Amino acid sequence: MTPASVIEIGQHAIEVALLISAPLFIAALATGLLVSIFQAATSINEATLSFIPKLLVIFFTLLVAGPWMITIMTDYMRRLFEAIPGLIG
């Protein structure tokens, strides 16, 4: 196993992690932005107001994008396990 292959495996792992987490982060970001605009428009200064909407949106996003996320992760793990014999010898 060469240093280049270790770097390549690490790079692919980071890419998969970012790809899987992107829908949840984008949903949380959009929800936080909408709640903060609502708070600014209504002059409500409650810090905990954004918690429940973010939680609900992330849960819904996980329900919708969950099968896709699992497919991406299992494909990555399958490719990684299939590459073990080539990496060892």
The whole-number mean of residue pLDDT values reads 92
Give the helix level as a range of percent.
Answer: over 70%
Based on secondary structure, the structural category is mainly alpha
**Could you tell me the radius of gyration in angstroms?**
19 Å
Number of separate domains: 1
How are the secondary structure elements laid out?
Layout: H1 3-42, H2 51-82, H3 84-88
Helix pairs in contact: 1-2
Short characterization:
The chain has 89 residues and is an all-alpha fold.
Which characteristics define this entry?
3 helices; elongated; 87% helix; 89 residues; mainly alpha
Description:
This protein is mainly α and 89 residues long. The protein has one domain (3-88). It has 3 helices and no strands. The protein has helices at residues 3-42, 51-82, 84-88. The longest helix is centred in the N-terminal third of the chain and has 40 residues, at 3-42. The model has no long low-confidence stretch (mean pLDDT 92).
